Structures are given as structure tokens and as C-alpha cells.
């Protein structure tokens, strides 16, 4: 049984240097126990994802997705292979994590009303006084003490040339990049999951695109990666980006924006991007629902995002650092109804399986990444990592 989120005031950090395979191998070897524990605790994976993989339809989706990954991002497939070899977990188990949202819900399985309560909340502030990205990372309670920071310097196959340098919060068994982090080029990002009704198994896993933006040099490269011309994402998501030294855009060096990403619905081989820039002197918030993209979404995540956006109306923009800390700490009363719409969410039992496992605040001007396990307006950070860019 996982302990509650606020019982372990620690976050492991791995500093690693090597090729993609070597990075993956080091992650797998270092965190093999966390990865094994995650699979042991993940009943959904065993009962749903792995079972679906055992069907002809599931195996075909797996094979087609892996084929696309090998064609478009073979170095990240090698990273997963290294993780498998280092941890002793079968490769197909790890790759299945990256396409688990392609598993269809069983017709006989009732919709879980708590399924959508796992949503993350992201805030951007872009003012002369403060440049901030705040983010609550919400996940299954099985993840509560089952994640880590990867700070990696990735080398080309020659073992000398540095091709990526980043730090990011990472889940066991997954490629880095799917939560929040930054890189040496001053790209800071966080991710909001979104749940479109229609997904496309033969396109690129969105988690590979999020892994790729850890190497982006500017906002234009981020957009190109997310657009993924020639394939496009298989799913929907939202990325909040601060580009601190962006030579790809005119005017201010600093660029802040939210990018909603969806699979092209008309069959075009690329992702569709819907970008909103955070102008100087303003703040912005995004949860787990499209605000601009017209793609139809699943119904179950909507209420939580709508309620969180309503809560945000109580705070005056632009948000300074104390306000960001206060917003990301909002907990509604545990009345069995409203509590699941908290911004800082706690799990109150087996029927309420999601909670905020970490809060990150990137203070770009101070070049500090503050990481909390408890509400940041009531507790100190567990870790303060320097942002080297």
C-alpha cells in the first residue's frame, strides 16, 4: 500500500551522462526497484493494457506504433531498450506504457467517475518582475513515492558530442519529458493531459514528442517537434512553454505560451497546434480541457477542469510568486464532492485514486526549480534545483 503523498519528503535525483541507450540503462538500473514496484502496483496495466496486448488487435496496434517510433525516433526507442536492460523489465511492458491510452474501455466496464480527477494545473506569469511556471503533478496514488528527477547530458553515438542537456520529473518506466522540466537552451515546460474521444494508433506516441522537446533550442523547434510533420500525435495534450532566450521570434527575447496539440482529424499527417501567447504583464492558466481546439473530448475530465478554472477566477492577475504558491495549494473541503476539484488534490480512499504527488515552480529569473510534496504556501520545498541555461 503506497503511503500518502505527504509522508515521504524526498525526491530522488539521478545525474547521468551517456548515449540514449546508456541514459536509459542508467535509469533502469538505478530505479529498478521503483519501476518493478510500479508495475506490481499497477492493476490497470496488468488487467487492461497487458490483456489487450495479448489480443490480435492489441498486438497489431503495438506493432504499428513501434514501427512508427522506430522510423521517427529510433534513439528514444533505444532509450527504452536501455531502461528494459537495466531494470530487467521486458521491453514490451515499458513500450506499452507509452501507448496505454490506446487501449479501448471495455463495454462492460462502467465509467469511473473519478477517472478524470487526476488533472494537473499549470500557471504562467510573464511580467518584468517575475517569470514563473507553476505546475501541480497529479497522478495515481501508486505514483506518490514512485517518481524521480532525471538530470541528463545526452551524447551522440561518438560518445563525445553533447546533443541534449535537461532535467525533468520522470515516472518509472516512462521516457523523460511527460511532466515538467527544462533544458540547457532555456526551454521550460509543463504538460496537461487531455482526453480526445478519437485517437490514432498508427501515429507518433505523444510521449515521444514530449521527450523530443527536451532537446529543443527555441520555440520554433518546439512547434516543429509537436507538429511532427509526416505523422503527427496519436493523442491530445497541452504544453505550457517559457522560452527564455528565443532567437526564433522577433521582439522580446522571452516568449511564454500555451500550445494545445491534437491529432489532425482529417487524416493529414501532422499534429494540429493551437497557440496562445502570454503577453508581457499577464498570467495564464491551463488544466485538462481544450480551451481553443475544437476537437471533441471525453466527458469525464471536463468537470474538474471547469471547476479549477472557476477557482482561478478568485485570484487577480498577474500572479506573483506568493500568489502562485497560494493557487497551487488550494484544497476544497473534504465533503465527498468538492474535494476532487481541488487544485492541490489529496486521495481520500480507494474510490478516490488520484492525488497531487508534487508541485513544481520554475522561477526563471532566479534560475531555480522549487519542488514540493505538500501545499507550497504551507511548507518548504523538498528540493531547490539550479536551472543551468
From TrEMBL:
Peptidase C45 hydrolase domain span: 128-373
Coiled-coil ranges per UniProt: none
InterPro entries attached to this UniProt entry: C45_proenzyme-like, Peptidase_C45, Peptidase_C45_hydrolase
Domain of life: Eukaryota
Name the UniProt record assigns to this protein: Peptidase C45 hydrolase domain-containing protein
Organism: Allacma fusca
Amino acid at each position: 500500500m503506497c503511503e500518502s503523498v505527504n509522508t515521504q519528503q524526498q525526491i530522488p535525483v539521478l545525474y547521468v551522462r551517456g548515449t540514449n541507450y546508456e541514459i536509459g540503462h542508467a535509469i533502469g538500473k538505478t530505479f529498478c526497484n521503483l519501476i518493478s514496484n510500479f508495475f506490481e502496483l499497477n492493476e490497470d496495466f496488468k488487467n487492461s493494457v497487458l490483456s489487450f496486448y495479448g489480443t490480435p488487435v492489441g498486438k497489431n496496434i503495438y506493432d504499428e506504433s513501434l514501427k512508427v517510433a522506430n522510423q521517427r525516433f529510433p534513439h528514444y526507442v533505444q532509450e527504452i531498450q536501455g531502461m528494459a536492460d537495466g531494470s530487467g523489465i521486458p521491453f514490451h511492458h515499458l513500450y506499452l506504457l507509452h501507448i496505454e491510452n490506446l487501449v479501448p474501455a471495455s463495454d462492460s466496464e462502467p465509467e469511473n467517475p473519478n477517472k478524470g480527477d487526476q488533472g494537473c494545473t499549470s500557471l504562467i506569469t510573464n511580467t518584468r518582475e517575475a517569470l514563473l511556471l507553476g505546475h501541480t503533478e497529479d497522478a495515481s496514488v501508486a505514483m506518490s513515492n514512485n517518481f524521480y528527477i532525471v538530470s541528463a547530458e545526452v551524447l551522440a553515438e561518438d560518445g563525445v558530442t553533447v546533443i541534449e542537456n535537461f532535467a525533468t520529473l520522470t515516472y518509472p518506466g516512462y521516457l523523460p519529458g511527460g511532466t515538467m522540466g527544462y533544458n540547457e537552451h532555456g526551454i521550460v515546460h509543463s504538460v496537461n493531459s487531455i482526453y480526445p474521444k478519437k485517437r490514432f494508433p498508427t501515429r507518433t506516441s505523444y510521449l515521444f514528442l514530449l521527450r523530443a522537446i527536451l532537446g529543443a533550442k527555441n520555440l520554433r523547434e518546439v512547434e516543429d517537434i509537436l507538429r511532427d510533420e509526416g505523422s503527427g500525435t496519436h493523442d491530445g495534450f497541452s504544453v505550457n512553454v517559457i522560452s527564455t532566450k528565443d532567437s526564433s521570434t522577433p521582439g522580446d527575447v522571452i516568449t511564454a505560451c500555451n500550445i494545445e496539440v491534437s491529432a489532425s482529424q482529417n487524416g493529414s499527417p501532422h499534429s494540429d497546434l493551437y497557440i496562445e501567447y502570454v503577453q508581457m504583464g499577464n498570467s495564464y492558466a491551463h488544466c485538462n480541457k481544450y480551451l481553443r481546439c475544437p476537437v471533441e473530448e471525453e466527458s469525464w475530465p471536463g468537470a474538474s477542469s471547469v471547476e479549477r478554472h472557476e477557482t482561478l477566477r478568485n485570484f487577480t492577475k498577474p500572479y506573483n510568486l506568493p500568489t502562485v504558491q497560494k493557487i497551487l495549494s488550494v484544497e476544497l473541503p473534504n465533503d465527498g464532492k468538492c474535494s476532487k476539484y481541488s487544485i492541490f488534490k489529496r486521495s481520500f480512499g480507494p474510490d478516490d485514486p488520484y492525488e497531487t504527488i508534487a508541485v513544481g515552480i520554475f522561477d526563471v529569473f532566479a534560475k531555480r526549480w522549487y519542488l514540493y510534496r505538500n501545499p507550497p504556501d504551507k511548507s518548504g520545498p523538498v528540493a531547490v534545483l539550479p536551472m543551468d541555461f
